[in-house]
Each structure stands twice: as structure tokens, then as C-alpha cells.
Amino acid sequence: MSSSTINYVRGNCLQQTILHPRILIHSCNCNGSWGGGIAYQLAVKYPRAEKDYVELCNRFGNSLLGKFVLIPSYTDANLLIGCLFTASFGGPNQGSERILDFTGRALTDMKTKLTVEEIPDPSELDHFSSQYINAFKSHSRIPLQDYKLELPQINSGIFGVPWPETERLLKKQKSMSFTVYVLD
């Protein structure tokens, strides 16, 4: 199996001119706060998606660590929001190793959820979070596999993890292709 492909693009991952189907992946905390960085921008632009995220955090808390949840944006048919739960709370000083560990687990969970038709032995969290994506799938004419995986340089902002360390984890994701947005 081949390693992943990472393509870099200069620009804002939330720009209006992006029209292809995509999953915008971001790292987030488990305490229900999209209060900074790309998460804050998502909260402002997609408040219904933030409501779903807060509901997940209130119900599952730190059991979300190392998990991936896909949430519809609700206002853009070509955009799904992929949440990698990598930290207990927002902000730095949580330890790069800990955040990277949960990032690796969440990326593995993401690959499973995006490539397997049905998750074997799903957890309560899997059952609960599947309601969001199942509602989306019932209205979409685009198969989930046709969505491109796009992200900013996750973990390197508020969480303070050097980008090359997260990049190394992305490269380990076999046969996946990522587009990473770098701000000018």
C-alpha cells in the first residue's frame, strides 16, 4: 500500500470560490468550544454544525478523544466538517505528544469511517454521531468517497504543535490524499 499524498495550496480553506465536494478536517477539543482558530471561523459560518458539535461534547466529553466525527455544514451541499478530537480543552500547554497521539488515533478512525460501509461493533458514540451523516447521505447525490480531504495546518495554531509533526502523521495514512491550505 502506498503512503498518503499531501498537496499544499496557498489560501483560505473557507474561501467562497471552492465549489467541489470536500471534507474540511480540523482538530478540535472535547469541551464544546469552537472558540479560536479555524474552529471559531467554522462556528461563525456554520452555527448549526457548531450546535451538533456542542451536543456531541456535552454527551460524550473526553471519550471523544482520538475519534473522528463528520458533521454536515447544513448550508453548503459541497462541504462536510470533519472533526478530529485531539485535545481535552482549547489552548496550548496540553503536550504535543498527547495531542499527536490523539491525532493519530482520530486519523485512523477517520479512515475507517470514510472507507468502511458499516462500522463493525459500533460504539454508542458511533451510533449517535452517525445520525448527522446519515441525514446528509439521504439527501446527497454525491458519494462520500468523492469528497476531497482538505485541512488547514491542524494542531499548529492554538494547540502549538509544530506542523512537521502532524504532517508526519498524515503521511502515514495509507492511500489517502490530503490538500493542506497554507495562509499567505
Automatic annotation (TrEMBL):
Transmembrane segments: none annotated. Residues 1-184 form the Macro domain. Its EC number is 3.1.3.84. It is an enzyme of class 3 (hydrolase). It comes from the Eukaryota. One of its GO terms (biological process) is peptidyl-glutamate ADP-deribosylation. It holds the Pfam family Macro. InterPro entries: ADP-ribose_metab_enzymes, Macro_dom, Macro_dom-like. GO terms for molecular function: ADP-ribosyl-[dinitrogen reductase] hydrolase activity; phosphatase activity. It catalyses: ADP-alpha-D-ribose 1''-phosphate + H2O = ADP-D-ribose + phosphate. PANTHER family: ADP-RIBOSE GLYCOHYDROLASE OARD1 (PTHR12521:SF0), PROTEIN C6ORF130 (PTHR12521). Belongs to the POA1 family. This is ADP-ribose 1''-phosphate phosphatase. It comes from Lachancea dasiensis. The lineage of its organism: Eukaryota, Fungi, Dikarya, Ascomycota, Saccharomycotina.
